[in-house]
Amino acid sequence: MQMKTKARYAILVFCLLMSSLAAGQSGERRVVASRQGRSLHQFQAADGTITFTNRPEKYKHRDDFIEVSIKYERIPLPTEYKPTPITQPKIVTDENLRSIVTRYAAYYGLDEALVYAVIRAESNFNPNAVSPAGARGLMQLMPGTAAEMGVTDIFDPTQNIAGGTQYLHKMMELFKDKQLAVAAYNAGPENVKRYNGIPPFSETQAYVKTVLRFETAYSGGATRPNFTVLASAQPQARTLTVKNTPTVKASPYTIHFHSGLTQPADDVQDRDPYWYIVYSNRTYPVRKDLVKSVEKAA
User: Fold this and answer.
1) Residue 31, domain member (yes or no)
2) pLDDT tens digit string along 194-221?
């Protein structure tokens, strides 16, 4: 009887120990999930350098840092939206593209003419457009930014325009100035903050002028040859071939996302829980859980 009591006691102690251990591990998982789920905040130091952090309380009250506030939300999709499998071709018409722009321009408080102008400047209304930097779709979303917004198919017109208009809205909120917002869409908000205005990049300065010129034309109801997706008299269906592999210039690094997309990089910095992807004049923070691998050229 005494031996049985000791055995029961030993089993009870063992169970309590394992339960405590499991609770500790479960708690750690929760902490990690919570940390990765926090919003990413961007701060600019007095010397112009950019810091990304998910602990904004460390910088908010410092006089030598200015917050560049960008907090992405999951894109809202209409209840009637039915995604087409990525492996299948998509059909887009003039009519449904108009409805997409109208929906998200209204949702984010943007002029439709400005959204059309950005699409024209970014992709020339080519839903399959892929830039040398790895930006994709009608409004040229970067893979990391798209993933942060919950975009699952970057070439899908609904998801792509939803993400692009959200980003443009964020820039308008941040700078309270259309020209600066458009410049930030092209060159990044960190560069607009750094130069306290439109950055001195020839591409960005030309981009701002082009977008505003297109916006004026679209606001006046003008029709243009390159506006065929939206201006045809009868809706015309077009089959879109999804391109997942962009042709890009040789770069020291290639970022492979779990979505199957890639993005080139001049430098990649490991700052847990983010990868800092540096390309050209831009720095893109990307959550590590969105990245499958970082490949360095031999």
Assistant:
1) no
2) 899 999 999 999 999 999 999 999 988 7
**Complete edge-to-edge strand list for the sheet that includes strand 50-53:** 50-53, 41-45, 65-68
Residue 67 bears catalytic tag: no
* Domain total in the chain: 1
Q: If you write DSSP's letter for every residue of 99-128 in order, what string do you get?
A: HHHHHHHHHTT--HHHHHHHHHHHHTT-TT
Q: What is the pLDDT of residues 153-200, one digit of tens each?
A: 998 999 999 999 999 999 999 899 999 999 999 998 888 988 999 999
Q: How many CB atoms lie within 10 A of CB 13?
A: 10
Both tokens of 61, joined, read 């009250």
Tell me the C-alpha to C-alpha distance, in Å, between residue 168 and each of 63, 125, 174, 224, 235: 28, 17, 10, 24, 27
* DSSP letter, residue 136: B
Q: What is the CATH number of the domain that holds 266?
A: 1.10.530.10
Position 290, amino acid = L
Give the separation between CA 86 and CA 160, rounded to whole angstroms: 13
Burial of 90 (0-12, 13-18, 19+ CB in 10 A): buried
List the catalytic residue out of 122, 148, 190, 215.
Answer: 122
Helix axes 94-107, 157-175, angle to 10 degrees: 30
In a domain, 219, yes or no: yes
Is residue 136 in some structural domain? yes
Tokens matching residue 140: 């040229």
**Backbone dihedral angles phi then psi of residue 14, each to the nearest 5 degrees:** -60, -45
What is the extent of the structural domain holding 265? 73-296
